[in-house]
Amino acid sequence: MPHTANLTVAVFSESSGWKLPSRLVDQIAGVSDAIRVRAVDRRAELLSLLPETQYLVGFPLSDEDFARHGKSLRWIQLTSTTPDLRIELPRLTASSVRICTASTIQASQRAEHAVMLILALVRRLNEAYSAQLDHSWASDDLSNTIADLEGMTVGIVGMGPLGRAIAKRLRPFDVEIIATLGDLNNPFGGVDEMLAPERLDELLGRSDVVVLAVPPTSVRRIVLNRAMLENCQKSALLVNVSHNRVCDDVALVEMLSRRRLAGAGLDSFDSAPLPESSPLWRMTNVFITPRVASVSPRYWERATNIVCENLQRLLGGQSLVDEWTAEEGREQTNPPEPATSTTAIETAAK
Predict the structure, then answer these.
(1) Under 8 Å between Cβ of 256 and 286
(2) 88 lies in which domain range?
(3) Using CA atoms, how far apart are residues 341 and 333, in angstroms rounded to an integer?
(4) Model pTM?
(5) pLDDT tens-place string over residues 154-191
(6) The domain spanning residue 35 has which CATH number?
(7) Are 236 and 251 within one domain?
(8) 4, 12, 142, 277 - which has most CB atoms within 10 Å?
(9) Is residue 213 within 8 Å of residue 241, measured between CB atoms?
(10) What does the pLDDT look like over 42-55, one tens digit per residue?
């Protein structure tokens, strides 16, 4: 069968010499005999193939590269989080290139990470660990501070693939789940109440736990400042596993120092790495993880499954998983088929 399109796999680190394993490239190539699949591990090689590439997996390109060499592109599958997607995606979609993000690829492990941080805060794991380091049997002290997640109200800010995955994992804990920044016309079944974006302050005030899960593709730029955080209950806990900056760290430090927030679990920060001088390091009511929420030993397997599913859908004229549309400014999730999207992906997607 003659090839009708060229697909270039550009998932590599030129500095370390790492590239997508050949067995996964072969899995992509096995989707259709009509597609010629080529893998590159150097930027120069990518640029040489780009003029005749219709489908691109990965996106190690600058705007200039895309403008000069990417005129044949029809579909791009991102495999990791790009910090400035709000800027880049509209430019790409304006050129009629279809874009699929990495949201579903990372949703499972990010959701698990969020639940881990919630439970650690609610059950006061920080205090237990501090007592452990002191060889102190602090059962009496801990008994006065440990709480139950059951019966709490959890507010999720951002109902993309990550927010939905968090809600799904929280449901067995018998919590009330409210959310915002989601599709009001097609609410996710795992949420008890979906609030309009204008009611964010209400969500903050009602929630015992606030979870920030705003996708990098969100056209609504949300950054929680001091005035917004003042809406939170003094006993509230804040967990941030967003892909991008959605909370003012200076304001958060102030709120935690004044005990206007009871604690925080953070995997997302104003800047990374978090400066050594940040007061967050020294706060006993804060858990810090160094942007590892997306890490998984099966990352690239999961990513490859999504690539293969989207390629099959593309060739079959079907809607794509996590396609970003400029008109609506959001992702069309279209969850992957269970047979294709086994939970699988990488270690280095941070």
Answers:
(1) yes
(2) 5-104+296-332
(3) 13
(4) 0.87
(5) 999 999 899 999 999 999 999 999 999 887 766 667 89
(6) 3.40.50.720
(7) yes
(8) 12
(9) yes
(10) 999 999 999 999 99
